[in-house]
Specification:
InterPro entries: Cell_wall_mannoprotein_1 (IPR021054). Pfam families: HsbA. It is a single chain. By secondary structure, this protein is an all-alpha fold. The protein folds into 2 domains: about 1-30; about 35-224, no CATH class. About 80% of the residues lie in helices and about 0% in strands. The protein has helices at about 1-30, 35-55, 65-85, 95, 100-120, 120-125, 130-150, 160-185, 200-210, 220-224. It starts with a helix and ends with a helix.
């Protein structure tokens, strides 16, 4: 009996130690940098595809709220991915190569969605949303630049050129789409300038761009 009582604290300590080790292992698996980065890319890809599908069905201002929600999700996911990439450790070759396939899928999704946005340029113009879309795309461009810079900084030097070849088509496509919509909106513009907008566009922009960090297209739907 005395031996049992003597061993009890030891057994409890061993069990506690095992549980703590298990917790550490679970935490390590959940916070594995490669898994985290891949998950971010996959989540972003899904939101980009979702936006593309929504834009593909866009017919007018009545659907602007849905498009805005999908666009905001993409930007939220971009911001999260960039933040996580900045905090990630430098990757070894195997880690960097593990990102190649999901990064290629993201590149293809971005190009496809941008093609759909461009195909709806006349529809956006009819809804007086050309300037709005241009500003949304500019924000996307900024976030994509931040994300790619953060991610490339973690890739080994010998693989940086390969990584760039994978994502450069989508970055170039995004810049071209931004330029096209800015030109259609009347030239150079910024989120704080409305001089190139029509009065209706200016009203639309003020109604949701100035309401906070999230875009509220629903007020446009209610107003039409």
């Amino acid at each position: 009996m005395m031996k049992l009582l003597t061993l009890t604290p030891f057994v409890a300590a061993v069990v506690a130690s095992s549980l703590q080790l298990g917790d550490v292992e679970i935490f390590a698996r959940q916070n594995d940098p490669i898994t985290s980065l891949v998950n971010d890319i996959t989540t972003l890809t899904k939101s980009v595809v979702d936006l593309g599908d929504t834009v593909g069905g866009f017919t007018g201002i009545s659907e602007a709220g849905t498009v805005a929600t999908k666009a905001q999700t993409v930007q939220d996911n971009l911001q999260t991915a960039a933040d996580n990439a900045k905090k990630a450790p430098t990757l070894d070759n195997n880690g960097a190569l593990a990102l190649a396939v999901p990064a290629q899928a993201l590149n293809e999704a971005v190009v496809s969605t941008l093609d759909k946005i461009t195909a709806k340029k006349d529809v956006f113009a009819s809804a007086s949303l050309t300037s709005v879309v241009a500003q949304l795309l500019e924000k996307d461009n900024q976030l994509a630049g931040d994300y790619s810079t953060a991610l490339f900084s973690k890739v080994p030097a010998e693989l940086k050129s390969t990584a760039m070849k994978i994502v450069q088509p989508s970055l170039d496509k995004l810049q071209k789409t931004v330029d096209d919509f800015k030109a259609a909106a009347g030239g150079s513009m910024s989120s704080g300038s409305s001089s190139v907008m029509t009065s209706r566009e200016r009203s639309n922009v003020e109604r949701f761009f100035l309401r906070g960090s999230r875009y509220d297209f629903d007020v446009l739907n209610d107003a039409q």
